[in-house]
Specification:
The chain is an alpha+beta fold. The chain contains 14 helices and 18 strands. Helix 8 packs across helix 11. The chain is globular and about 70 Å long. The chain binds flavin-adenine dinucleotide (FAD).
Length: about 450
């Protein structure tokens, strides 16, 4: 049932037992609140319920179910697919729930479900602590962690989800449970990689690690060096310590010139002296056009790429794990990048190694545990007139990589147009068990605006 706007008496009924803010069409904040990071998303919910706490989330879930309303859950609003909002229906908006409470003694943090990684970094850095978040700091903790959460520290500390100790979840019944290794174990397993399928996570408890500083930054080469640099990257990353994570790719200069570049993005989380030594070959290779590498606080490296992904920009992404960085793949990449229609487009490798690969494929719901590379085409543009050209280029580029694909695909990068069978590539051997957990916790598929596990 598509509800365009909710009748006043229905909205008033929820308002009577709700401590947050209800926003519908006609309210002044409606457009800002329904907007997602991806400016292509333009959905018009009947009501957005901005919750202040767990009780509000439980009321909103019960209300949506009782009214038969479509239900969406908005964490940081970053998912390219735009499933954090819906046309008609109710959006549970968590943007008022961004609290982060660090316990420096146990080195843990309880993080509310609507926090962004920048919120986490800010509070944990006070204590010289950190945990794996995304590669940029503007993404939401909620969606990123539930989808696994790869980032700069994954070689050393695993994925964001690997550092999860507990999650407080509002289930489809409105019941509130805490999932951890010794309670609701099946749910705890599924939350670490199964996406938003099982309920609304109102808070996450993460294990933190002592880490105040990293040695990192950016090395950019003229685009003519692209092929050689990618082959150098392949050879160099064949043997790197856990604390050194490097992404490489073909990008455009973020200074507005749109100049195409071949770039290495480096994060070394080891002790400063060793880190400086170990990044040296990355800095001295070839004839770089720009080198900005040095010691910096962890939050600085986590925010370094934020400006390349502005809120409201238009986004269409594709990604796949690859069998390796074969010469043919490098050539295809260089050739395809040359026709990229956007001055903000990129093609990137994300290196999986170290701690992230030492977790079993079925130990959490994230099956992507092999050493290797994820290939990402994060197409971003600003001019709506070029939307068709950008989407077409991204699809063609992705198709051109078909001969080099490995089995897996990273769930968090899925867009809105993936065929249902592509979920096999995302959930791998865990899809069956995820469906069992789904049957147990959400048999009516109340939470289906996600990359859906059908019960
Ligand atoms: C610029 C950019 C950079 C990115 N970098 C990375 C990266 O480095 N590593 C990586 O792994 N991914 C990355 N991603 C992908 C990102 O992890 C996903 O888009 C993720 O879903 C974002 O989380 P969110 O809370 O902001 O999303 P939202 O759009 O708010 O939510 C996405 C989905 O997650 C679910 N959800 C969100 N919060 C909750 C909650 N509290 N409880 C229950 N369900 C919830 C909902 O089902 C919702 O549909 C990036 C995306 C962008 C746009």
């Amino acid at each position: 049932m598509t509800v365009i706007a909710l009748a006043d008496e229905r909205r008033d009924e929820l308002a009577g037992r709700f401590g947050g803010v209800l926003v519908g069409p006609g309210d002044s904040t409606y457009d800002a609140l329904r907007a997602c990071h991806n400016g292509l998303i333009d959905k018009r919910p009947a009501l957005l319920a901005s919750c202040r706490g767990t009780a509000d989330v439980a009321e909103a879930v019960r209300f949506a179910v009782a009214e038969g309303l479509e239900l969406a859950v908005r964490g940081g609003g970053h998912n390219v697919s735009g499933r954090a909002v819906c046309d008609g229906g109710l959006v549970i908006d968590l943007s008022l729930m961004r609290g982060v409470d660090v316990d420096p003694e146990s080195r843990t943090a309880r993080v509310q479900g609507g926090a962004l990684w920048s919120d986490v970094n800010r509070e944990t850095a006070v204590h010289g602590l950190a945990v794996t978040g995304g590669a940029v700091s503007t993404t939401g903790v909620g969606g990123l962690t539930l989808g696994g959460g790869l980032g700069w520290l994954m070689g050393l500390y695993g994925l964001a989800a690997d550092n999860l100790l507990e999650a407080e979840v509002v289930l489809a019944t409105g019941e509130v449970v805490r999932a951890r290794p010794d309670s609701h174990e099946d749910l705890f397993w599924a939350l670490r990689g199964g996406g938003g399928n099982f309920g609304v996570v109102t808070s996450f408890v993460f294990q933190l690690h002592p880490l105040a500083e990293v040695v990192g930054g950016l090395v950019a080469h003229p685009i003519d060096a692209a092929g050689d640099m990618l082959r150098f990257y392949r050879d160099f990353t064949a043997d790197v310590p856990d604390d050194l994570t490097i992404f490489a790719g073909l990008v455009h200069a973020p200074d507005g010139s749109g100049m195409p570049l071949a770039a290495l993005v480096i994060c070394h989380a080891g002790p400063r002296e060793r880190a400086l030594q170990e990044v040296q070959p990355l800095v001295t290779w070839g004839t770089p056009a720009m080198v900005e590498v040095g010691p910096m606080p962890y939050p600085a490296i986590n925010g370094m790429l934020d400006d390349g992904f502005p809120a409201g920009s238009l986004n269409y992404w594709k990604s796949t794990f690859v069998r390796g960085i074969e010469d043919g793949l490098v050539d295809t990449m260089v050739e395809r990048f040359a026709s990229c229609p956007s001055p903000m487009g990129a093609i990137l490798f994300e290196h999986f190694h170290g701690a992230v690969t030492r977790v079993g494929r079925e130990e959490t719901a994230v099956p992507h545990r092999a050493t290797g590379y994820n290939l990402l085409i994060p197409e971003v543009w600003m001019d709506p007139a070029t939307t068709d050209a950008n989407i077409a280029w991204t699809r063609e580029t992705y198709d051109a990589f078909a001969p080099y694909r490995a089995d897996g695909r990273w769930l968090n990068y899925f867009g809105d147009d993936e065929a249902p069978n592509e979920l096999d590539a995302a959930y791998g051997p865990n899809r069956g068990r995820l469906a069992e957990v789904k049957r147990r916790y959400d048999p009516d598929n109340v939470f289906h605006l996600n990359h859906n596990i059908v019960p």
